[in-house]
Design goal:
two-stranded antiparallel sheet; TIM Barrel; globular; 12 helices; alpha/beta
C-alpha cells in the first residue's frame, strides 16, 4: 500500500556522475529506519538535470536495491506528454510499484489540458499513478475538480501528492474523491495536519536526514497516539523549516554531506548554500543531534 513516510530521495553525485554506492547506502539507511516508501527521480532527486539514461538508471537501480521491501514510486513526470508516457512505461517495465507524475511545468496548460495530459498517460499504462500538484514549481494549480474527474475516469489514478500548501484544497480533494483516494502531503510542515484531515501519508524531504522520526510520526498517528504524533510534528518543525531555507534539494543535500552520507555536490543551475544559510543549517542540525 502507498502510505506513511515516503522519502523523496536525493540523487548523490560524485565528480559529475551518479554516486551509485552512496545511493544504495541511502536506500538501506531509509529502510533500516522504518521509511514506508521511496520516490527516486523526484524534484529532490534533481530529475530536471538527469539525462534520460540517468533517469532510467536511477529508477531501475532503486527498484533492484529495494527488492520489494517497500514500495518504489518512480518520478516519471514531464511537461511533454509523450516523454512522461515513455518514462512511466519504463518504470512499469522494471517493476516500480507506482509512478509520480508532476503537473506539466512552464507551458502552463489549462485545466482541460491537464485533464487530457494525465488521462492520456493513464490510458497507456497499468501502473498506479500518483498525481503531483506543486503550483510553486509548475506555475499552475491543478484544481480539486480536475483531480476528481481524473480519479473517477482513470482507474489507475489512485492519489495525489498535494503541495499547494492549502489544507482547504487538500480537504476538498478528499471531499470530491472520497476517503479511499490517496492524499499525500507534499510539504513536510503539513504532514501532521494532512493526516488529521484523512491523508494517507507524505512524500517527504526531511526523511532524507531524519527518517526514523518522520516514520514514527505516521506510525504514532495510525496507532492512535495523537499526542506522540503532535510531539514529533513540533520536534521536526525546525528541520522542516531549514530544509527549505534555499531551493530544494540544496539544504537537504548539504545536510547529508555534513552528516557524512554523501558528497554535497549539485548540478547547475543549483549551487552551494550561501554562508549565512549554511550556518543556520549547521546550527539546526546540531540542535537536533544529527551532526
Amino acid at each position: 500500500m502507498i502510505q506513511g513516510s515516503i522519502v523523496a530521495i536525493v540523487t548523490p553525485f560524485r565528480d559529475g556522475e551518479i554516486d551509485v554506492d552512496s545511493l544504495k547506502e541511502l536506500i538501506e539507511f531509509q529502510i533500516a529506519n522504518g521509511t514506508h516508501g521511496i520516490v527516486p527521480c523526484g524534484t529532490t532527486g534533481e530529475s530536471p538535470t538527469l539525462s534520460h539514461e540517468e533517469h532510467e538508471y536511477v529508477i531501475e537501480l532503486t527498484v533492484k536495491t529495494v527488492k520489494k521491501r517497500i514500495p518504489v514510486i518512480a518520478g516519471t513526470g514531464s511537461n511533454s506528454t509523450e516523454e512522461a508516457i515513455r518514462l512511466t512505461k519504463f518504470a512499469e517495465k522494471v517493476g516500480a510499484d507506482a509512478a509520480l507524475l508532476v503537473v506539466p511545468y512552464y507551458n502552463k496548460p489549462t485545466q482541460d489540458g491537464l485533464y487530457r495530459h494525465f488521462k492520456h498517460i493513464a490510458s497507456q499504462v497499468e501502473i498506479p499513478i500518483i498525481l503531483y500538484n506543486i503550483p510553486g514549481r509548475t506555475g499552475i494549480n491543478m484544481t480539486p475538480e480536475t483531480i476528481a474527474k481524473l480519479a473517477k475516469e482513470c482507474k489507475n489514478i489512485v492519489g495525489v501528492k498535494e503541495a499547494s500548501g492549502s489544507l482547504y484544497q487538500a480537504s476538498k480533494i478528499l471531499h470530491l474523491c472520497g476517503m479511499d483516494f490517496i492524499l499525500l502531503s507534499g510539504e513536510d510542515a503539513l504532514n501532521f495536519p494532512i493526516l488529521a484531515i484523512g491523508g494517507k501519508g507524505f512524500i517527504t524531504v526531511t526523511a532524507n536526514i531524519a527518517p526514523k522520526d518522520v516514520a514514527e510520526l505516521y506510525n504514532a498517528y495510525v496507532r492512535g497516539d495523537f499526542n506522540r504524533a503532535r510531539e514529533l510534528h513540533y520536534k521536526l518543525f525546525p528541520l522542516n523549516e531549514v530544509m527549505f531555507i534555499e531551493t530544494n534539494p540544496i539544504p537537504v543535500k548539504t545536510a547529508l554531506g555534513l552528516m557524512g552520507k554523501i558528497k554535497d555536490e549539485f548540478r547547475l543551475p543549483l549551487s552551494p548554500m550561501s554562508p549565512n544559510n549554511l550556518e543556520k543549517l549547521k546550527t539546526t542540525l546540531q540542535q537536533y543531534g544529527l551532526i
